[in-house]
Write a structure and sequence with these properties.
The protein has strands at residues 7-13, 26-32, 38-44, 58-65, 70-77, 80-85, 88-93, 97-107, 116-122, 128-134, 138-144, 150-158, 164-170, 174-179, 188-198, 203-213. The protein is mainly beta and 258 residues long. The strands form five sheets. It has a four-stranded antiparallel β-sheet, with no helix packed on it. The protein has a four-stranded antiparallel β-sheet with strand order 13-12-15-16, with no helix packed on it. It has a three-stranded antiparallel β-sheet with strand order 3-4-7, with no helix packed on it. A hairpin with a 2-residue loop joins strand 5 (70-77) and strand 6. It is rod-shaped, with a radius of gyration of 51 Å. The relative contact order is 0.13.
């Protein structure tokens, strides 16, 4: 007996007996295959986006090889397992988000490869943007992407003259009311414009949409019930006729009888 390495082999054998007779040479050509197959998983995408995201339906290609040949390939995807005869297998998928495919190959020698896995990232949908109105303290908006997720969004508010009065940037999804600095703005009609981009690089844009802000209500000034000052009540004046008292110079002595 002797050891042999994997691969193609040619064996030539002759036998010699004890008296020196030599047999005809026998030749054996064959393949030594003690190793499991090697296996590769690749994603074929017609439209690549950012960060290895595919923006369309993709094809998963599984290929394997072995010195002695491959009997079959077994793969599992979305909970379904299939075995295909031969050294390769492929299938198409449009499942959005991140999914995983796993596969192994069985060699004709009976050796099986280790299981290989690969992520499949597909996002063919633009971000969803919805504006549900606002007031002077909050704006209600939803900015989401259910497949790859939001990577960046901006919101900008304009007054009736087209001047920008507010701008915000964020790098994650937004759901529902958010606070903003609108308390000092006068009442009237405003417009909001929203931009969103997902991690696959797909973008969506909400054109300027009008909404109204009410005027600030002014509370009436309080009227004091206590007067600041009380003027004296006027008194009625009685004018009496002047009395002229007689003076001595005006007195006349009475007549004295003689």
């Amino acid at each position: 007996t002797f050891g042999m390495i994997n691969g193609g082999a040619t064996i030539r054998v002759r036998a010699t007996d004890s008296v020196g007779n030599v047999s005809p040479q026998l030749t054996y050509n064959g393949v030594i295959d003690n190793a499991p197959p090697t296996l590769f998983i690749a994603l074929e995408c017609p439209l690549w986006g950012n960060d290895n995201w595919c923006q369309a339906s993709a094809t998963v290609n599984i290929n394997s090889n072995s010195v002695g040949g491959v009997q079959s390939v077994t793969h599992t995807y979305n909970g379904e397992t299939k075995t295909v005869s031969g050294s390769s297998a492929s299938f198409s998928t449009s499942a959005g988000g991140v999914t995983t495919v796993s596969a192994s190959a069985l060699g004709k020698s009976g050796a099986r490869s280790s299981t290989q896995s690969a992520e499949i990232k597909i996002d063919g949908a633009i971000p969803q943007i919805r504006f549900n109105g606002g007031d002077k303290t909050t704006l209600t908006l939803d900015i989401n992407d259910s497949e790859s997720g939001i990577s960046r969004w901006t919101a900008q508010v304009f007054d009736a003259n087209g001047n920008s009065v507010y701008w915000k940037e964020s790098f994650s999804s937004q759901n529902g009311a958010m606070s903003w600095e609108g308390s000092n703005l006068p009442g009237g009609t405003y417009q909001i414009e929203i931009f969103g981009r997902d991690r696959a690089g797909l973008e969506s844009h909400l054109e300027r949409t009008s909404f109204s802000l009410s005027a600030v209500s002014q509370s009436p000034l309080a009227i004091s019930q206590t007067p600041l000052a009380i003027s004296p009540r006027p008194q009625s004046v009685v004018v009496l006729p002047a009395i002229i008292l007689p003076t001595t110079s005006n007195l006349t002595a009475p007549d004295v009888p003689q």
